[in-house]
Design goal:
The structure holds two protein chains of two kinds. By secondary structure, chain A is an alpha/beta fold. Chain A contains nine helices and nine strands. Chain A has a single domain, classed as Rossmann fold, CATH 3.40.50. Helices cover 35% and strands 18% of the residues of chain A. In chain A, strand 7, helix 7 and strand 8 form a beta-alpha-beta unit. By secondary structure, chain B is α/β, with parallel strands linked by helices. Chain B contains twelve helices and 15 strands. The chains are: A alpha/beta, B alpha/beta. Chains A and B meet through strand 1, strand 2, helix 2 and helix 4 of A and helix 3, helix 4 and strand 9 of B. Strand 2 of chain A pairs parallel with strand 9 of chain B.
Chain lengths: 256, 353
């Protein structure tokens, strides 16, 4: 019988600790699938960041280096420059990448570092208990915006993909969601391109995932998924914001 | 005929690093250490190395962390305010046991301070500097030659202990120009069964500093403590005219060099003094100093600060009440005559004439 669905080899077979309805598990799987499909498990060095994302090292069956908070793009720069033949990716949340790590991500992109950045935006600091992130929506209630984010004093949700797309070193910048099967299929294609661009040495590749955080949003999984559609996508439109050129079709057999 | 070059102290550090196999340099401009990144930017590309002028000292130290985790010999340099910014990364490197060489050609503070020499970063360098219960090896050169030699040594120590190593110089040691005898690096191969290379034919490796499970972090910290204790076998110091001395004078780095002249002047003036110069500031040569102090209890400590190393001296010697201190805040450097008169004062007080 033909096996049509299985756990990616690059994903360790252990129960995930993520909260019910969290999108980290889905995004982990998508990334692991690409590592498998490009045959990169033994070539990959992952860079973990700080937040719920740090535990990627418990799930990805690849070499992993843990970075200080926000510095993953600089750490990945050091890794990739020293090991140019390895596949290097960072996995960072919005508290990490879009707040304390803004300088590092912008300059990593601008130098055109040959790394792939997975950016998980769930509009809150998740691990620390749901404080305001730079990506928190106007009016959104968090533990540090108990009356809702007031843009007059706390500013606006920051759009990292759009910002990075303006930089010369960025080869590929896209925003995707995984809240429905349709969005997920599109996300897979985008992620594949982001992997391929690094493998072809085209420059910096960035994929932003709009993600749910049911626990800190104080919603059930269904409502959290709906919030991604109703509130996040209108403010953070999905799409490819920069693409230096269509890549050759990759030689990967299973792209279902 | 030795290969002698007339170079700036900062250049000597860069030359020593390249000779020791350093092929990755990450930095950010700050006076008075700019000759280091400038030299690296000119010389690394031609030998297959990588120079990155980073967006900040924070990015530089994290690039060092990344390169170090792959087993590469890598270095960053800065001066005091920039070294403060690097402390986060140094703490993570210590916690993750990632080797790397960090050069501080220190200037005066606090804050933006000034660009003149200072020894006010002694505490920051020798007490870890960042958060957590950790130590870095600290090497304190006092000549351009030692800048060259100790930079090579720093890479060996970093690899041996899988730990960040600091070189603590200052503006004077960076800007001084003097002859340096070049010599080939003679290192050995260090264990690299922990580096990240992609998991070809082996289990994946993880390098981290986060330990959340019960007891795990305690065990990790004890392991680090044992390592810091074991560093004592690599302690370095210089003794000068101590055999018949009645009083020890001690200082490190550039001040020790000036003090050495004052010691010779004091000898000419019939004062039996000798110099003790710590070269490793961590581990501090406490056992050696204690042994000497059993024979020579009187001691004068001189620093270009209001007193930092003096605490380690008092913790080391047999009788802390016999330790005099002369320090002054940065702004200019003391002359040999100024230090001679301080030696005289201490000598008259502790020994009499």
């Amino acid at each position: 019988m033909k096996q049509v669905f299985k756990r990616p080899e690059s994903l360790i077979d252990v129960p995930a600790h993520f909260c019910p309805g969290c999108h980290h598990g889905i995004i982990h799987r998508l990334v692991a699938e690409q590592i498998d499909q490009f045959g990169l498990r033994e070539k990959t060095i992952g860079v973990a960041s700080v937040g719920c994302s740090v535990f990627m090292y418990d799930y990805f069956d690849v070499d992993v280096l843990e970075s200080p908070h926000g510095r993953a793009a600089a750490v990945a720069t050091g890794v990739k420059r020293s090991r140019p033949d390895n596949f290097v990716f960072t996995y960072q949340g919005d508290g990490d990448l879009a707040a304390i790590g803004t300088a590092e991500i912008i300059h990593c992109a601008n130098r055109g570092e040959q790394v792939t950045v997975i950016f998980v935006n769930n509009t809150v600091f998740g691990m620390t208990g749901g404080q305001m992130a730079p990506t928190t929506m106007p009016g959104q209630v968090t533990t540090t915006t108990p009356f809702g984010r007031e843009v007059a004093t706390a500013g606006y949700p920051i759009k990292m993909t759009e910002i990075l797309a303006t930089l010369g070193g960025t080869a590929y910048a896209a925003r995707v969601a995984v809240c429905t099967p349709k969005h997920l299929m599109k996300a897979k294609k985008v992620l594949k391109t982001a992997f391929q661009y690094q493998l072809e040495g085209r420059g910096f590749a960035f994929v932003e995932f709009l993600s749910s955080c049911p626990t800190n949003w104080k919603m059930d999984s269904i409502r959290a998924n709906q919030r991604v559609i109703d509130e996040m996508i209108p403010y953070f439109p999905l799409g490819v914001y920069k693409d230096v050129g269509a890549a050759a079709e990759p030689d990967s057999p299973a792209d279902e | 005929m030795p290969d002698r070059k007339f170079v700036k102290g900062n250049e000597a550090i860069a030359m020593g690093a390249i000779e020791a196999g350093c092929r990755f340099y990450f930095g950010y401009p700050i006076t008075p250490q700019n000759e280091i990144p400038e030299y690296m930017s000119a010389h690394l590309p031609g030998i297959g190395g990588t120079f990155i002028q980073a967006e900040s000292e924070i990015a530089s130290i994290n690039m060092l962390l990344g390169a170090g985790a792959t087993g590469a010999r890598a270095m960053t340099s800065s001066s005091s305010p920039g070294i403060s910014l690097k402390q986060e990364g140094i703490s993570y490197m210590a916690g993750s046991q990632i080797p790397g060489v960090i050069v501080n050609m220190s200037r005066s503070g606090p804050g933006l301070g000034g660009i003149s020499p200072s020894q006010g970063d002694y505490f920051q360098a020798t007490r870890g500097g960042g958060h957590g219960d950790y130590r870095t090896i600290v090497l304190a050169p006092s000549t351009a030659q030692e800048n060259y030699d100790l930079t090579m040594k720093a890479f060996d120590l970093a690899d041996e202990y899988r730990n960040p190593v600091l070189i603590l110089g200052d503006a004077m040691l960076g800007q001084i120009k003097e002859p340096v005898v070049l010599h080939p690096y003679q290192g050995k191969d260090y264990n690299q069964d922990w580096i990240l290379t992609g998991c070809v034919g082996r289990r994946p490796r993880l390098i981290k500093s986060l330990y959340l499970s019960e007891g795990e972090l305690t065990e990790h910290n004890w392991k680090l403590y044992q390592k810091y204790q074991s560093m004592k076998k690599d302690v370095m110091f210089e003794e000068f005219l101590l055999d018949d001395a009645k009083m020890i004078v001690t200082a490190f780095g550039s001040v020790a060099r000036i003090l050495k002249t004052s010691v010779k002047m004091a000898r000419a003036d019939k004062m039996q003094v000798g110099l003790f110069r710590p070269i490793t500031l961590y581990p501090f040569p406490e056992a050696a100093l204690r042994r000497i102090s059993e024979r020579i209890p009187s001691c004068l400590v001189v620093e270009l600060s209001t007193g930092q190393m003096v605490e380690d001296v008092r913790l080391s010697v047999n009788d802390p009440t016999k330790v005099e201190f002369y320090g002054r805040p940065p702004g200019s450097i003391p002359s040999p005559n100024e230090l001679l008169s301080e030696i005289k004062k201490a000598y008259e007080k502790l020994i009499g004439r």
